[in-house]
Amino acid sequence: MTKVGSWYREDKSCEFTVWAPSKNSIEVKVLSPQKLTVKLQKNKEGYWHGKVSNILPESIYLYVVDGNLERPDPASFYQAEGVHEPSCIINHSSFQWKDQDWKGVPLEEMIMYELHVGTFTQQGTFDGIIQKLDYLKELGINAIEIMPVSQFPEGRNWGYDGVYPFAVQNTYGGPEKLKRLVDQCHQHDIAVILDVVYNHLGPEGNYLGDFGPYFTRKYKTPWGLAINFDDNNNSGVRNYFIQNALYWFEHFHIDALRLDAIHGIYDFSEKHILKELAEKVEGHSQREGRKHYLIAESDLNDKRIIEPKEEDGYGMDAQWLDDFHHSLRTIIAEDKRGYYCDFGNIKQVVKAYEQGFVYDGEYSEHRKKNFGSSSQHLEPKQFVVFIQNHDQVGNRMMGERLSQLVDSESLKLAAGAMMFSPYIPMLFMGEEFAAETPFLYFISHLDAGLVKAVQQGRKKEFSAFNWHGEPPDPFDRGTYLQSKLRWASLEDQRHKDMFDFYRKIIQLRKSLSSLRTLTRKGLSVSWNEKDLLVVISRSCGESYTCCYMNFSKSEINATHANQIREPMSKVIDSADKKWNGPGTLSPDVVSSSSEININPRSFILFKK
Amino acid sequence: MTKVGSWYREDKSCEFTVWAPSKNSIEVKVLSPQKLTVKLQKNKEGYWHGKVSNILPESIYLYVVDGNLERPDPASFYQAEGVHEPSCIINHSSFQWKDQDWKGVPLEEMIMYELHVGTFTQQGTFDGIIQKLDYLKELGINAIEIMPVSQFPEGRNWGYDGVYPFAVQNTYGGPEKLKRLVDQCHQHDIAVILDVVYNHLGPEGNYLGDFGPYFTRKYKTPWGLAINFDDNNNSGVRNYFIQNALYWFEHFHIDALRLDAIHGIYDFSEKHILKELAEKVEGHSQREGRKHYLIAESDLNDKRIIEPKEEDGYGMDAQWLDDFHHSLRTIIAEDKRGYYCDFGNIKQVVKAYEQGFVYDGEYSEHRKKNFGSSSQHLEPKQFVVFIQNHDQVGNRMMGERLSQLVDSESLKLAAGAMMFSPYIPMLFMGEEFAAETPFLYFISHLDAGLVKAVQQGRKKEFSAFNWHGEPPDPFDRGTYLQSKLRWASLEDQRHKDMFDFYRKIIQLRKSLSSLRTLTRKGLSVSWNEKDLLVVISRSCGESYTCCYMNFSKSEINATHANQIREPMSKVIDSADKKWNGPGTLSPDVVSSSSEININPRSFILFKK
User: Fold this and answer.
1) Which of A111, A221, B184, B402 has the smallest CB count inside 10 Å?
2) Cα B26 to Cα A363: distance, rounded to the nearest angstrom
3) What are phi and psi of A410, to 5 degrees?
């Protein structure tokens, strides 16, 4: 394993390593504050290596390829001036970490919170997030998931157009500020999950191809050239991405990585790159004595992704469970557009609770094929669930959150359905106070042709999906600014109540062991198709809870579905006046003979 | 499983089935001898179905797609007039089979013979092959492998540009004559292996895209659009190719399929199409009570291809072992061009004998990556070996056979090295008499632009690989004619002697159980790097043989490598005067203390 990048040493030297297997010469050209050029030496694996003495940290440099082409470092740690400018040396030893006592948060205990640095706060920086950590802690969040921070063009981007996987976005604050954020998170008992993109690189500022065969034309992704994980001359590419994962763990103390759209990682090698990555991360965790997690976003419903490495799986610790979202979403918001057409039956909600994947080999109308494999044998703690996320909100033409589409009773029901599931819950920033700002798609590429292509592409896409009207211009600064969370909303009692409601259900999940323990053992689901009633019973040792969820728009009598074992007490009714609901219909204590009535679009949680 | 195509019934009706999932109407338009049009009905899986009564076999028809587009049947059984013309109805029940007693040849007993219909005989037809069956039988061949016969444009093609997977090439004689050939082969105790192409379709006359999503842009093959085995809307595509495999077994009595370049079959589904195919073929074999085999051509050195389905393998019965060829070839012909650069060490020959894959995770200089997995645990009978094949000959610029590149002593050594290996041997047509006609690349597309592209492509390819001069024009009829085997050569004693030599070594392989039994048990290989000496000892029960092979160009004394257990008799010395060699140097009977001397480039086989 070769460490790539420019490594600043205690003795004020800097070691440079770059992979360029078929090039004839590589020089490092330091531009400032000194000016000097040093030839690198090539080893048999195609890595060029050299050491420059007496150099200052934060020096800026370029590589000169074959004597004429000047390019930033593919493994640049910082692009202070943006994607087209020289790279900047970083001294990774200089940061004073204060998280020595940090033990991490076990994956199964995480309450995740997905956020986008630029729009989470007005500042749009890592420092901005730090100011919200007390708030997040009060809410009960113990893991933030940061959308990608690898350097992208200019300042406005979701992060999936990053072109320097190792360089932390300059406008967010760069590497130093990310370290500070992680350090502060850990001191607030909050883990940090970083979203990383290993399936493509963005279209602007991507100079990797000038160094080596990082890309292959054998496969195609919807987002750009596929990364060369299995074609000829791939060893430096595989190493580059594995090094990238380890880099975040080692130098930024990141706790887990969320791997973006792994269905765009094409690898027919006998050992899939994800499996190799899982092995290397496991080795690192063992050396460090602290577990680091890999969480995949996967559109494949393929059990192999999260099956153990020993059983021919890729060994990812967990993956996002889209089927859970889609099942709930189509019932709650009655949306049937696009891939939602495969969902909308309450039995799918039940299956998602009981088994995970809803499509486990069944015919999918949207995909027009039999799709998926069963995940019934896999632990619920291997799935992350959500009722909103950046994609499900942002890929709507107008970027509406669920709060802009359904009433607040439905919102609370959806929140409970997620929080009392046996899966790891993830909120999307602002969801906890029913934020009403949209999360739109925005970019700020410098290449005008590219901007135009993106603008036209989005128009076309939405018109193909029968959306009416025109999408907001992704390049317009206003589109970005509109997407920033409006924190002032919290002064409004309605939003404040929603925050309190979320805080309450998070606290319940953490305090009741039947809700906290993520196993299929002790889980039973009953339902009534006509009434859209789902009852989830969960037990763990002495702890027993029962959650009645009425997905219909009518008040229902759920006595026939009585799962009450002995006198149980009502823990929370989402329809309670306290949460701005119409008022509970259930007594505080119920027995197996009690009448149970539930308001439209609400849930009642009972505990023994 | 839906049977596609036009099925002629006893009652003089014909049932038509075609997959066109997103079309609004499909009609069958019979053009001759009657004229009529019948609307087909669509089922929920996207298949259109209909029956036409009172129709003659050999009627010609088209499909009318959405009321205006007239196209041949994607599953046409016969394109009597070529790729751009209407399809022809075939009555598959009319052929009178006479092979009722045929029991098949077990894979591990096969002596294969690869042939190209067009150039194997002057006629260039299936009938032409029939006239050679006595000859092949005399040689000892018990399985012919026919290069692809699916309809391609005009008459000159290797077969990999086929565009109607179910239609037998008209210029070869069409479906009836192929049946006759198979029937005759079976009566000559010869099995028939058919080469089929499931990784792409040819560039001319491919109208499948007008019916449905047969292709995907997600992947790219070097030969054309990738087939949609795993993208949306793939069920009709998977079925189409599975039906194709079963079609050859059921209606043509084919014994085994050779699956062309399966590394171009991209399928990330949980169940790979090859695995599904293996399951379906197994089911068919069970119903029929006769085993049908699947043999993959694979460039992946991936053990999963031939591992059992139950152990997460794809369950192919066997695969071609390119590493065996390359190891031997580079020693024998001292060629280091292209991918041969990864070979040339005698230890690789030894590894190929002992383990199968030479590259089992090692770094490949040609591929610039670590490559392959170990096949040591797999049975030798799962590998097909050769010292020449259509690619290794035809992909040379001048299409030279090994006989045109090395002397006849080397040829005999190579032949023995193959025949006495623990693998299934395969000859390339004419190899047995050291044919000196080249096997060139030829095409006869009608599309002039395409022809030009192919011509230029080949020029470019060869110049990139440092071949000097210009390749013969693939479109020139002379290139094709030149490639036809010159059977008159057999009147020449030198060629006749080579034939006798091949017949002898085949007969030895069949008669000695140590040579016939394809297991690693009882196999031991010793070697001497300096002398390029390899000694293969094989035992099975009482049968024990020892083959001394001298790959060097000097006479060597192999006493130091003595593997003689007890007095053993010399079975054959390739350097014998009988085979036009310089004369044997070994006594007829040897013991453990005997001096063993071997001529340059020759082998001696001893048996107990």
Assistant:
1) A221
2) 24
3) -65, -40
> Can you give the pLDDT at residue A96?
97
Smallest CA–CA distance from A367 into chain B, residue:
B232
Superfamily of domain A516-607: Golgi alpha-mannosidase II (2.60.40.1180)
Among B593, B592, B583, A3, smallest CA distance to B604 is for B583
How many CA atoms does the CB half-sphere of B137 hold within 13 Å?
Answer: 14
Check whether A323 has a pLDDT greater than 80. yes
Is B219's CB within 8 Å of A220's CB? yes
Distance from CA of B210 to the nearest CA of A (A): 17
Does the beta-carbon distance from B219 to A217 stay under 8 Å? no
Catalytic site residue B231? no
Q: Cβ contact (<8 Å) for A270 and B218?
A: no
- Residues of A annotated as catalytic are 260, 297
pLDDT at B593: 83
Please report residues of A whose CB lies closer than 8 A to that of B312. Answer: 312
pLDDT number for residue A270: 87
Same fold, A5-88 and A516-607: yes
Residues A269-295 have a mean pLDDT of 96
DSSP class of A32: E
- For A368-418, how does the pLDDT look when each residue is reduced to its tens digit (9 = 90+)? 989 999 999 999 999 999 999 999 999 999 999 999 999 999 999 999 999
CATH code 2.60.40.10 for B5-88:
yes
Q: A118 to each of A124, A127, A181, B429, how far by Cα in Å?
A: 4, 11, 14, 68
DSSP helix/strand/coil, A251: helix
Please name the residue of chain B whose CA is at the shortest distance from the CA of residue A228.
B369
Tell me the three state secondary structure of residue A10: coil
Task: Please say whether the beta carbons of A512 and A492 come within 8 A.
Answer: no
3-state secondary structure of A350: helix
CA–CA separation, B543 and A193 (whole Å): 65
In this prediction, residue B598 carries a pLDDT of: 96
Domain boundaries, chain A: 5-88, 113-343+383-503, 516-607
In this structure, the strands spanning B523-528 and A589-590 are unpaired
**Which residues, listed in sequence order, are joined to residue B536 by a DSSP beta bridge?**
B525, B547
Beta strands B5-8 and B143-146 are: unpaired
Q: Say which CATH superfamily domain A113-343+383-503 falls into.
A: Glycosidases (3.20.20.80)
What is the H or E stretch that residue A259 is in?
A: strand A256-259
Q: What's the average pLDDT block by block, 10 residues per block, for chain B (608 residues)?
A: 95 97 97 94 95 94 97 98 97 96 96 98 98 98 98 96 98 98 98 98 96 94 91 95 98 98 94 97 96 97 95 95 97 89 96 97 91 95 98 93 96 98 98 97 94 90 81 95 96 96 98 95 92 95 95 91 82 97 94 90 96
Q: What is the pLDDT of residue A466?
A: 76
Residue A494 makes CB contacts below 8 A (sequence gap 6+) with A408, A434, A580
Nearest alpha-carbon partner for B603 in B364, B411, B422, B336: B411
C-alpha B458/C-alpha B443 separation (Å) is 12
DSSP 8-state code for residue A217: E
What's the one-letter identity of residue A211? Answer: F
**Which CATH topology does B110-322+381-463+473-503 take?**
TIM Barrel (3.20.20)
Centre a 10 Å sphere on the Cβ of residue A494 and count the other Cβ atoms it contains: 11
pLDDT given at position B594: 86
Q: Nearest C-alpha of chain B: how many angstroms from A269?
A: 8
The interface predicted TM-score (ipTM) is 0.81
Closest chain A CA to residue B230: A369
Q: How many contacts (CB atoms, under 8 Å) link A and B?
A: 59
B228 touches B234 (CB < 8 A): yes
Confidence of residue A464 (pLDDT cuts 50, 70, 90): confident
Of B233, B300, B370, the CB nearest to A369: B233
